[in-house]
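hey can u run this one w/ 6CM bound, need the structure tokens asap thx
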Amino acid sequence: RITDDDKLNSETFGTGILARGHRLWPEIDKTCLEQLHYARQGVGEDGNGWQLFADEGEMKMYRREEEVDGMVIDPLKSCHVVKGVTAREMCHYFFSPEYRNDWETTLEEMTILENIAPDTLVFLQTHKRIWPASQRDALFWSHMRRIDDGVDKDANDVWIVCNRSTQHEEYPPANQGKCLRIHLTVILVCQTYITETKTIENTTRDDLTCKITYCSVVNPGGWAPASVLRAIYKKEYPKFLKRFTGYVVDQCKNKPIMF
Ligand code: 6CM
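ok here u go:
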């Protein structure tokens, strides 16, 4: 059980202090750094094999067509720019279970299997069945942290949330044959930019710009027709990013800024 003292310790001593002793910690730490490096590479000057499939205002989404054993696992990379919120706020709403149902449109049910630390949770989610495919579930750890490695020199701060599939003894895949288990790796990287003439103390929401990179690779965990899957992704990913970012802007509007 996480107490208020633990939460305070995590704020004082920084990321991972409470999760560090956990069996998943080495993998969580390594995956976050790898995924951050991958997200920072962008899509390159000439697209580098990335195809732009959604281009709406500031939001751009790219994918690569990839298959393993006949299953579509197209990696996705997207960037967006949103005004009026911070990187931490964006990550807070993406990570925290209490808001997930407000913005996640494919969700049927969500359970927290393990509360490792205030910034590290294990989730089991069942997603809505999309005809004609079987229903899917996902079991994954989720970790949120501030990045302080000095790489993004122009940004005021950088926050990430990384999600990756894992196993849990009590919840094996295809339990009772109901769902196929998808395998996912997801990272949300957010950077806050503040109008140059402002300091943190006199910043208002009009001075904030949040740059977002969202990358995901989802293995559907069992055969699904490639054309159906690609059509679903093409529709659902832009819908998700617009809805989620709009939701965060809305939630933050009349609240104090959270850096
Ligand atoms: O990253 C997103 N959401 C996070 C919190 O829920 C988390 C979850 C990812 C699950 C991604 C599942 C996508 C596929 C769901 C439909 C499965 C149907 C398969 C049908 C086969 C034909 O990282 C946002 C995810 C937005 C996805 C559009």
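The CA atoms of residues 71 and 223 lie 6 Å apart. anyway lmk if its weird
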